[in-house]
Amino acid sequence: MSQTVFAPWENPTEKPLIQFKNVTKRFGDFTAIDDLTQDIFAREFFALLGPSGCGKTTMMRMLAGFEAPTQGQIFIAGQDMAKIPPNKRAVNMMFQSYALFPHLSVWENIAFGLKREGKDKDTIAARVEEMLRLTRLSKFAKRKPHQISGGQRQRVALARSLAKAPKLLLLDEPLGALDKKLRQDTQFELMDIQEKTGTTFVIVTHDQEEAMTVASRVAVMDEGQIIQVATPAQIYEAPNSVYVADFIGDVNIISGRAKPNGEKVATQWAEGQPDIIGTTATKFDAGQEIHFAIRPEKVAISTEEPQDAANRVRGRVLDIAYLGNISTYHVELPTGHVIKAQTANTRRLSRRQITWEDPVWLSWTDTAGVLLER
Amino acid sequence: MKRFSWFNATSLTLGFAFLYVPMIILVIYSFNASKLVTVWAGFSTQWYGELIRNEEFLNAAWVTIKVAVMSSTIATVLGTMAAYVLVRAGRFSGRTLFSGMIYAPLVMPEVITGLSLLLLFIGIGLDRGVLTIVLAHTTFSMCYVSVVVSSRLVSFDKSLEEAALDLGCSPFEAFRLVTLPIIAPAVISGWLLAFTLSLDDLVIASFTTGPSATTLPIKIFSAVRLGVSPEINALSTIMIAIVTVGVITASLITKQAAVRQARDERMAERPA
After folding, report:
1. What's the pTM value of the predicted model, to 2 decimals?
2. Which CATH architecture has domain B56-227?
């Protein structure tokens, strides 16, 4: 059975759940969000990714209602949110500090929002039990927040924010405090919960791996603007700028001048070196400044000169980073450029053929890299 | 561990003697059998007995407690509100002026506070009595409450309030259901402080009182002018006891609860 791919952003008839329309937010002289327009669709797991101070938290706080835009409008389900206070929004937030109420038990923390809605006792009890089951906290219902572990607290925070079945759940760096193993488990748990509940999630994170793992779409932000919005695969394989390519994962960037030739573009990058041949859909003018970006795992490394590669350069091994599953070779070219090449260590205990100071060949196909204007 | 030194021991003894010898003498003489205050004639609790039968003193005690309860309660409400606004409102123009003005009565000479209040009450034609003392005590004790409460609020994680709003609380509900329970120890110790201050105030009370309302400190002061009696010693001993208990309780509540709550809150947050 084939599954339809979830991509409402490609369907022009789909109505977005959240719309940012030319939103600007200033704090005094500082512009946190700069004329930002963006749609987010129902049931999406939307990640806002960027370095600290890029405005991602401000975007989230505006959705929650803790900050008001200086200019522009925010719509949730078609409603202008300008005059709606946080307590009147069908939006809940999981706070970075968790913000659990220290004087209330786990049960009371989760029931807090439901009690505010004035639901009857049985409904509240049933819903809290459901949330406790969902987050596997049933055993800890009577404990106070200081009597449970960090991971459990994080799940209480999640259960509390999900209890009211919000249309939209905001997660502010939700997993930052957990150690790596627990964080990975929780990421899959989050995706699972998101699928089960059908809630739209917007997550703020500075951890690119986390964004790539959980999100249906990732928005890479810098200085109050969204640089690129795309699926994790598109962001990784087809970044629209050097900034995005560099922010997500590891990348080699070689700058030069464009020499278009039909579908192919040659990049002149150094005297006496063959041009780098790449494929692109974008038009480049001859002599235009161009940046060739290629991921290390797409660069092959060998001791013999490869015969059929579209691009090949000679170099000398500068450094080797062994990471268990993969090894990264830092290869210095005669021009002084250092290119990273990655190989998977598929064979156990095989003797390494290439070592420090070895002369090697690097090669890649003409579709392995992307050509970027900026 | 510091070594014992005669110099330290002596200065400590002198210091404490300076502070407490007068009070200890007063307490001892309150158990004196003799009517002459300065002549010891054996242990007796008769002056405490006579105190209980003394209508005037009992009335004064009743007025004092009424005034203290009312003024400290009003002061706690107002002081907490002031502290909340000053800590939470962020930077509004005149903020420094406002906080300065709230704390100024701490250092204002009591005589001036008392006199200004007296002039105000005469000016607006308010009959002096219990009500005016309550108002006066509220005025000067609310700044103490405000100091205690605001020092607690400064360390209060604001995202707790945001979480309450996010979960559907109005701002007032967020305060009542989240902020207040968490800062309660500071509010209670502020109340106890205000209560104690009101209990032993003489200067401001004597400016703002009328013939119908005589508080204990006023009563004692006027009685002493006719000569110290063992009854006064007994009464003072009781007051020392009450004030001591009040202050110690207040500081214990503040300290212990603050430590515990700070820990709880830290624990309720994500691990660092």
Report:
1. 0.79
2. Orthogonal Bundle (1.10)
